[in-house]
Amino acid sequence: MGPAIKEIEDRIVNSRPPKMMMVGRSGHGKSSTINAIAGKEVTTVSDVKPGQVESIPLYIEFPEFHSTWEFIDTRGYFDPVKPDGARIENAEEQLINDILRYKPDVFMHVINIKEIRTLSNDIETFKRIRSRIKKKNLNIPAMIVLSHCDILGKRKEWPLLEHPNKAAQVMEAMRYLSEDILQIKRVEYLEKDSPIKGFSIDDGTYLGIIPICSLEDDLWNIDTLRRTIGYNLPNDANFDFFQATRDKEMLRHLSTSIIKRYSVIAGGIGSMPLPIADIIILTPLQLLLIAIVALLSGREISKDHFDPVYEFMAAAGVNIGAAFGFRTLAHQMVKLIPVAGIPISGGIASSVTYGIGKSAERYFFMNEIVKPKKLMKNID
After folding, report:
1. Which end of the chain is flanked by fewer CB atoms within 10 Å, N or C?
2. Strand ranges (DSSP E) for 331-373?
3. Beta strand 199-200 with 208-211: parallel, antiparallel or unpaired?
4. Is 78 helix (H, G, I), strand (E, B) or coil?
5. From the first residue on, what is the mean pLDDT of each consecutive set of 10 residues in the chain (380 residues)?
6. Best CA proximity match to 65, nearest among 203, 241, 312, 290
7. Which domains does the chain have, with CATH numbers?
8. What is the pTM of this model?
């Protein structure tokens, strides 16, 4: 059970706060974007002049979800006017110093969508900065966040999806940025059914372009931004982020990742030559997997409260001990195919565990009852 317990320790028990850094000019929406992502006001918005002297770490607590985030809210590094009191004249050098100091997990380069055509120098500067920190062995994912989509064109044309003209303007802005400025020949959509939600790119600097509106009463596309952040955080930092957002899609993404990992572990256990020994280990492994999926879905699980696990097993007709029958059958095959016997039994253990995990996922996340045998498959 060591690898299974370690997986939970690494991903959940020993998880740490994610570190996110915002870069961009003053007044382009860095502070309001932080507030929108967090879902509450955590920093003051400054729209008039460069508002910060240096980077400021913001610790955002979500006590109800036992989670904490760290945002590094930077000064307007690309501003033509230096913030009052700044100690380092060269803003590029200060940004590099701050990156090396805080070591963020992800960058967000916030750009006012109306000013794309005048900010090619900012983008080139950020590319140069990112290239320099790569030489320090820091390969930090970065994305462009196009803010203020509400003021593109006519302000009264909102919500965006109810006004095709404004939606077309946002698409044109993203295409201009990707094709003319970043010189990307081919992009993919972050959401295939909704291209306007953003582009997935890979130019060696940025991984995506996400348009947003971060006004408190007119939030738009913040979920897409959150998911792009969450899916690019390190494994030891994404649980706190997923928990605080309570985004079912992200939590299910984490659930699927753990199910696959547990299935691989089960395959290793199933390959053991002693059938009694491996079933004794497989049973608690599969029960633990069900409990983890339930926990990620928001159900209460503790050593004294395992009811959701029993509830699922009764609803889905799960009999974990039945896996022993598959295991015994696989051992009998050794008599006929000695070389194939152990790999086959390992594959059965992996497939059964995967089916149980995915069945639990459908039950807890989607309120659907699907028998594990319908979801079984081999995991490489």
Report:
1. C
2. none
3. antiparallel
4. coil
5. 76 87 88 92 61 74 90 75 56 85 95 91 90 92 95 85 92 95 91 94 91 90 96 91 90 93 87 64 87 90 83 85 54 50 70 93 95 78
6. 241
7. 15-244 (3.40.50.300), 247-374 (no CATH)
8. 0.82
